Amino acid sequence: MLEIEKKNTRRGLEITLKGSLDSDTHKQFEAFVDREIESNRHLVLDMTDVDYVSSAGFGAILYAQKIMSKKGDMVIENMQPHIIEVMKSIGFLDVLTVR
Amino acid sequence: MKKDLLKNKAVVAEVRKRILSFEAGAIVLLEGTRNHEMYKILRGNVEIYVGYGTDKETLVGILGVQDCFGEFGVLLHEPSIYTVVAFSDLDILRINEGDMGDFIRENHHSIMAIMRNMAKTMNIMKTQIELLVDEMIAQKALNPGTIEDLNKAMHMYDEDGAEGKEGEEGAEGEEEADIEEKAEDEEEADSEKRAEDEEGAEDPDGEASESEEKDSSLRSE
């Protein structure tokens, strides 16, 4: 299950995710991104309360990154350490900005 | 001097022929196609997919500068096991089997990078399998026996593989001990039964036991 909240701040569009980003929820996230980021150049993804990301979930994050790369930037914040380790091992840290 | 310069120019021209460029989003290598070439990334990043363009499309990982892909084609002559898509504008160096000898001689320091890259690709695949198994466990799509087999296979060569193996051997040893104990119990029960049967055969009416009782009662008197 995935909960998505958004707010517009000085930093741009901040999206807070809670739950799992997996094969059941990645389309929900992608659809949200398609709807909401059209007019935003900066995207901040808060992953504090995301406890699991699957291959499909990483694909969705990359999807958002590719869109934002063309028009601005995307930053991922507060990713859980065990998820960062997975991202490191599959090469994601080369193309994502993670804080 | 002029000779060296001409030779260098020729080498540069030759290398330039082997550099391919792709725009972001372009398919560089398609899963299932035979391609007897390996590629080294000179600029940019690529995405590695299995099942690209299908319902089962799975992003496996990202490779970057100095990483190589396509080893299966050039080393094993097998079709590509993944699709490679340019994440960004991309320059890659094409290395075919005929070039490998020269490539190794001229870039011996790259061989470690190639081997490291192959190990990295294997690690990426291993990570993805673990993620897939986790997801299938969560969806209860695997039975416990399969999960156990998969975990054993994936962690066979881990650093704590020795402990893992000892643990396995310990568990196996316990199982064997249980089986042995059970076999011994069954054998004992069988031999008792055989003894009873033999006794019954010799003295079907129980006269021998009566006689023993009489003897003991006479002795007591």
Order of helix and strand elements from N to C terminus of chain B: HEEEEEEHEEHHHHH
Average pLDDT level of chain A: 92
| Rg of chain B, Å, rounded | 35 Å
Per DSSP, what share of the residues of chain A sits in E-state strands of 2 or more residues? 35-45%
The computed structural class of chain A is alpha/beta
Main structural class of chain B: alpha+beta
Q: Low-confidence spans of chain B: pLDDT under 50, at least 5 residues?
A: 161-173, 206-221
Number of helices of chain B: 7
Radius of gyration of chain A: 12 Å
Give a quick account of the main beta sheet of chain B: strands, pairing sense, barrel closure. Answer: 4 strands, antiparallel
Name the shape of chain B in a single word: elongated
SSE string of chain A, helices as H and strands as E: EEHEHEH
Strand order of the largest sheet of chain B: 1-8-3-6
Q: How much helical structure, as a percent, in the residues of chain A?
A: 25-40%
Q: Which overall shape of chain A is indicated by the principal axes computed on the Cα atoms?
A: globular
| Biggest beta sheet attributes of chain A | 4 strands, mixed
Beta-sheet strand percentage of chain B? Answer: 15-25%
Number of helices, where a helix is a run of at least 4 consecutive DSSP H or I residues of chain A: 3
Strand order of the largest sheet of chain A: 1-2-3-4
